[in-house]
């Protein structure tokens, strides 16, 4: 059985907070939805419906902290990697700083919306990146 992920650990969040450098961050979101959402109270919805509710309820908080979507895409073909791995929702969210992302997570409105995300998501990846200026070449030395 493969590991699945739908939230981060306290240790990972502590590492995130420890790197509270100035400047924007990009968060790569790869999300696989459940066919049927799993709510603790037993209510019924598809994973897509539950995720849409999460998106709608959390959007004002996301925008208030300065978040914006900088890229969105739809998986067409995995050229390198496990062919069975697929993601239903793929996007990069930009936040003005690590503190802005942490502020969103602490917001009471966002915390209520998270119930829908947790019900919707079968597996996910949330990967933090720094934003590099300028050079868009393949040269790894340009990333130093």
Low-confidence stretches: none
CATH third-tier fold name of the domain at 23-76 and 85-130:
Alpha-Beta Plaits
Q: H/E series, N to C?
A: HEHEEHHE
- Measured distance between first and last alpha carbons: 37 Å
Q: Which architecture of the domain at 23-76 and 85-130 does the CATH hierarchy give at level 2?
A: 2-Layer Sandwich
Kindly report the average pLDDT value: 91
What structural class results from the helix and strand content? alpha+beta
Helix content: 25-40%
Specify the overall morphology.
globular
Largest sheet: 4 strands, antiparallel
Structure summary, number of beta strands: 4
- Beta content comes to 15-25%
Tally of helical runs = 4
Radius of gyration: 16 Å
Spatial order of the strands forming the largest sheet: 2-3-1-4
Helix/strand layout:
Blueprint: H1 10-18, E1 25-33, H2 47-64, E2 68-73, E3 89-95, H3 98-106, H4 108-120, E4 121-130
Antiparallel strand pairs: 1-3, 1-4, 2-3
Helix pairs in contact: 2-4
Detailed description of the structure:
With 144 residues, the chain is α+β, with helices and mostly antiparallel strands. The chain has a domain at 23-76 and 85-130: Alpha-Beta Plaits (2-Layer Sandwich). Helix content is 34%, strand content 22%. It is built from four helices and four strands; from the N terminus they run H-E-H-E-E-H-H-E. Strands 2-3-1-4 form a four-stranded antiparallel β-sheet. Helix 2 (47-64) runs antiparallel to helix 4 (108-120). The longest helix has 18 residues, at 47-64.
């Amino acid at each position: 059985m493969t590991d699945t992920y739908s939230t981060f650990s306290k240790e990972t969040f502590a590492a995130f907070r420890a790197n509270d450098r100035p400047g924007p961050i990009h968060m790569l979101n790869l999300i696989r939805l459940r066919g049927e959402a799993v709510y603790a109270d037993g209510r019924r919805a598809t994973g897509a419906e539950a995720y849409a509710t999460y998106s709608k309820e959390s959007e004002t908080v996301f925008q208030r902290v300065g978040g914006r979507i900088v890229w969105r895409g739809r998986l067409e073909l995995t050229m390198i990697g496990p062919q069975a791995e697929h993601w239903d929702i793929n996007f990069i969210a930009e936040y003005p700083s690590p503190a802005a992302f942490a502020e969103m997570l602490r917001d009471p409105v966002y915390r209520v919306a998270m119930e829908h995300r947790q019900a919707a998501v079968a597996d996910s990846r949330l990967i933090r990146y720094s934003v590099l200026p300028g050079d868009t070449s393949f040269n790894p030395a340009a990333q130093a």
